[in-house]
What does this fold into?
Amino acid sequence: MNYTIPRQLVVLLVTWCCLMLGHVRSQSDVTRASCVVAPDSGVFPIQGRINITQPSAGGAVTIYIYLTGFNTSSPGLHGFHVHANSNLSEKCNAAGGHYNPQNVVHGAPNDTIRHVGDLGNVYSDVNGVVNTTITDNIVSLIGQYSVINKAIVVHGGEDDLGRGGYTDSNTTGHAGPRYGCCVITLDSVASSTTPVSTTPRSAASHLTSGLLLQLIAMLLVAMTMTVS
It folds into this structure.
């Protein structure tokens, strides 16, 4: 018996393949990392999650920050930095100073001269919540100065961005105690820069999936020329 496939069904299948191919490509073109702040990591019981994304070819990082547990009676700014070490012991003190591989002075995120780890401040609201996004062109998940396996530290006070005139303004921004911290780690979702051995699905498997979807789409297009 001979069967024919309706042209409309073939068009729908081709559209699905194209959408799935776009999803595979988008997953493989982005490097993703995260950092989970535990409530007992620092000197104040803040907690939450920080997600970081960056195009795998390079470019600006986007940092999504959601933290809770700040003092609800005093909303305000808190220094937010990448620090040099991955050791979170001693209530975050073992994380060391700001990540500063070029050995320059502390500054604001938009300053020409600044630490790699200088991300300025985040704002905690009247509910004790930080819910914000930072875009930065210096911090990177890839390359020579990657921040993978570095710590993020959230401070109790405002970062003066090196302009406060205190003895530690040019090193720490006089940002005060370390409320909480976490280590930046690559997410399990594979990207083209993620080592194959560290992820359930490697970049190679994404490439194979993409090629398979392209082949299916080509076959389906060919079928539209012969079906009713």
